[in-house]
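Reminder: ligand-aware prediction takes two inputs, not one.
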Amino acid sequence: MRIGVLCSGGDSPGMNAAIRGAVLRAVEVHGFEMIGFMDGWRGFFAGDSVPLDRRAVRGISPLGGVILGTSRVQPFLAGRGDAGDLQAIRDRAAEYGIDGFLLIGGNGTQTVAQLLTAAGIPAIGLPKTIDNDLGGTDYTFGFDTAVSIAAEAIDRLRTTGESHRRCMVLEVMGRDAGWIALHAGMAGGAQVMLIPEFPESIEQISEWVLSVRDRGRSSLVIVAEGFRLVGSDEQVTRDGLDGFGRKRLGGVVELLAPLIEERTGIETRATVLGHLQRGGSPTAFDRVLATRTGIAAADAARAGQWGTMAGLRGDRVEMVPLAEAVGRLKTVPADRYEEVRLTFG
Ligand SMILES: Nc1ncnc2c1ncn2[C@@H]1O[C@H](COP(=O)(O)OP(=O)(O)O)[C@@H](O)[C@H]1O
Ligand SMILES: O=P(O)(O)OC[C@H]1O[C@](O)(COP(=O)(O)O)[C@@H](O)[C@@H]1O
Ligand SMILES: [Mg+2]
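Here is what comes back for the chain with 1,6-di-O-phosphono-beta-D-fructofuranose:
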């Protein structure tokens, strides 16, 4: 059996460990051949590929980024995913002599994996995203690393904030789901956590900040990039589009900080953590999760379990139907938000 691997979407710490896990299992244990495509679908169509064997994945688990590169290049040349698009992928896969794909990506990528499998082009998904917003798995690799970096940022902002009696507002990633803000905020003891799922009013936020001041402390507010104030229809965006044509998010903190300062009279500073939370070495947790994901995906290919994704269920990595994983984002449920909201301020 010959398997093609590619990464799609934003990078996520642990992707290298996932590739290594899959290669060691597929090549060394099952006797398969593996080929990696550079920069996602770009490399697949451009013939930019590398053989993946034991030597190719030596020592890569602790490395940040991903050796194959990743991109948001469209898999469907005409962009519609119709018969012609699918035939182009089928033809190209036949030229490479590959029997199936391992696709490392988030919700968008797993949607593609499902479309391909439904069209008779076998694919298995390996879930990644720092946002942790993918269904069918308890956690995605990369999330733990992003949370650790964001929690450390809170710790650091706190000491400078306390010294100046300021309100510090930290913006983290999270387009549609506030998992990073929720977990980092809990870890760092943030007094307010603002997430895309639950808009809040500037009056309420200011009230929380003032109550912290009245207790003699300085506030640390964490906000996910996709957060909206009550009454605001649109998320705050930056200029330009991403590779998939979506508006780039970011900058909500620049809107919030002056509003908080104006309403509370407390000097307020804004920080955008940005891509720092996606860069660098993965945590041990993410390396282990990613390696196990890769192993499970290789085993699934051997067993012919195409159309599935290697999801973490409790302590086990299990193959779940792609249909269970895609279509609906895994957002923060109301009870998880209420649990922290009751202690804001
Ligand atoms: N519904 C879709 N149909 C076809 N291609 C898609 C679809 N959703 C995503 N893609 C492709 O998969 C890529 C990865 O999806 P994206 O949402 O950017 O990242 P992720 O896979 O991490 O969620 C997109 O840039 C796009 O090329
Ligand atoms: O700067 P980029 O690469 O366009 O990505 C920004 C987006 O990617 C993410 O980090 C991860 O998103 P995906 O997992 O869907 O790729 C989002 O939190 C963020 O909005
Ligand atoms: Mg996505």
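The chain has a mean pLDDT of 96. The pocket of adenosine-5'-diphosphate (ligand 1) is lined by residues 8-10, 72, 74-76, 81, 105-109, 111-112, 129, 243-244 (CB under 6 Å). We will return to this case in the review session.
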